[in-house]
Amino acid sequence: MSFETPLPPYNASDPHATFLNSSCFDLLLIEMVPLAHRLAEELMQERSGTGSGTQVMDEEEQREAVFRRLDALGYRVGQGLVERFSRDRPRFTDTLDMIKFLCKDLWTLVFKKQIDNLKTNHRGVYVLTDNTFRPFARMSMTSPSEALARVQPV
Questions:
Q1: Phi and psi (nearest 5°) for 129?
Q2: Consecutive H or E run containing 129
Q3: pTM to 2 decimals?
Q4: For burial by CB atoms within 10 Å, which of 3, 18, 27, 34 has the most?
Q5: Beta strands in 60-123, from DSSP E residues, in sequence order
Q6: For residues 82 and 22, which has the higher predicted lDDT (pLDDT)?
Q7: What distance in Å separates the CA atoms of residue 145 and residue 137, rounded to the nearest whole number?
């Protein structure tokens, strides 16, 4: 799957080659959080057995359920993308090769740009920074800097 316009030297004989408009991708990302909230509420109603919503999840509990759902979904989708785009490459020999693949190749395929910054503590922890992460550009905030401030980890 590629998010770019197909150029002439693409492999038309590849039965798995599909293309996706980046606007569709943006709309999907915008809808993911509200969908996760709706699913968390529906699952809570099913567990309570009433279906009427008499047992209400407290705000923190619902937030954790949404985070878990989005985290699991992101992990599964990311793993699928990595498997798909790295299938024609030799096996990665070390962690640094994997991180380079994510920063240069995969990020470019998905977001049309490379990672802006890569930091490590040399103990296996890598921090990837994208200063102009496209999905945040469409967030409803007064300024892009406010959106970036709200998504910073605490």
A1: -120, 130
A2: strand 126-129
A3: 0.63
A4: 3
A5: 117-120
A6: 82
A7: 10
